[in-house]
Amino acid sequence: MKIGQHAALTDTGRKRLRNEDALVVAPPLFAVADGMGGAKGGQLAARITASVFDDKTSSSALDAPTRLRALVTEANRQIFAQAQRDPSLTGMGTTLTAAIVEDGEIAIVQVGDSRAYRLRDRILEQLTDDHSLVAELVRAGRLTPEEAALHPQRAVITRALGTDPTVAADVTTIDVRTGDLFLLCSDGLTSMIDDDVISATLLDSKNARDAVRALVRAANQAGGDDNITVTVFEVVEDSWSDKEAASTATPDEDTLSSLDPVPLFPEGSRSASQHAPELGAGIAHGASSSTRSIVPLLVTALALALAGLVVVGAVWGSQRAYWVGADEDGHIAVYQGVPWDVTEGIRLYRKIHVSPLRAPQLSPAERARLLDHDLVREDEARGKVEEYERLAEVP
Ligand code: MN
Question: For a FRET experiment, which of 12, 47, 165, 254 has its CA 20 to 30 Å from that of 71?
């Protein structure tokens, strides 16, 4: 697997004069830093951290968690040293949430209250623990998450990079699956909108760039009290040939009985009809479905398919689950299922009979009748086709 779509955006927000957040987008490494400290300290601390993490010369001979720890140590050393040299920078520091995707895993290093999330199977899960006063009170059972969200001290962090000669960073490693979407963000996002909104925004987004813009917009619409920084990245299969095989696999239509579950045909490999485009439904649309994907789209399609299944299940189980249409070559055909395309390439029907008769051989009135796609019993559907064949004098 590898990094697929990714995007990042940082915004000053509506209340701050400066943006003291910093970003690193160096796939498979991503990082978000949120600086703190008077004067220009916060901005500098975050930028130093970003420049350390953006260093592509760091040895990949070491495993990801070890590399992250080494980068944290180096960033901490540089920030602390610079603060020692310049009294106006005393106490400057930064949060850091950084991740490396490697060998089927994601290694995450955490200092402070920026966050990493994973969206998998439409479920958004926070992967990091905030190092903040309120988060510690919540973990100790002394505050509810609702109280924490409104607590006046919610911005107080308990760990930062660069404020002390050494830093305690949490490093975790979790497995990664194809289709996982990750989000790293500063508290300017999470203090403005809650996880449900983040989740819905990700699921509604067309692509990674759309997602980061929508998240920043949502945080600003909620007030934009702080700098907002987000980066999203998805994990995809890296073998194109594997994907192709998966997307063009066709179920064995002949062995399916009426008791089988409704098939969801991946017919992306079939080409659009050039013969009878006016027939509309029942004719394949897109020539090929794109193999590029981002989780929200895919998940939405699957959810739609599942919702369709529920509705269709009843119809399919009944006898009136047949209709007459025309196939991709313009041949009159009997279909089982319902004449719906859930999305390009996913249908809720299958062809069970193809007539030698082609739709263009019918009169316009007959063609119009053919396209009503009324659900009927199988014998009625076959009878309709035989009637057309008789009218057209097909042997
Ligand atoms: Mn912040």
Answer: 12
CA-CA-CA-CA dihedral for 369, 371, 373, 378, to nearest 10: 70
- From the CA of 262, how far away is ligand 1's center (Å)? 50
pLDDT digits (tens, 9 = 90+) for 175-196: 999 999 999 999 999 999 999 9
The pTM (predicted TM-score) of the whole model is 0.62
Residues 6+ apart with CB under 8 A from 235: 1, 2, 3, 4, 101, 176, 177, 178, 179, 180, 181, 182
CA of 188 to the centre of ligand 1 (A): 5
Tell me the range of 116-130, 250-264, 276-290 where mean pLDDT is highest.
Answer: 116-130
Lowest mean pLDDT among 67-76, 222-231, 233-242: 233-242
Contact 160, 39 (CB under 8 A): no
Please tell me the distance between residue 176's alpha carbon and the centre of ligand 1 in angstroms.
28
Q: How confident is the model at residue 240 (pLDDT cuts 50, 70, 90)?
A: low
For the chain, give the number of residues: 395
Reduced to 3 states (helix: H, G, I; strand: E, B; else coil), residue 199 is helix
**How many angstroms separate the alpha carbon of residue 160 from the centre of ligand 1?**
12
How far, in Å, is the centroid of ligand 1 from the Cα of 321? Answer: 57
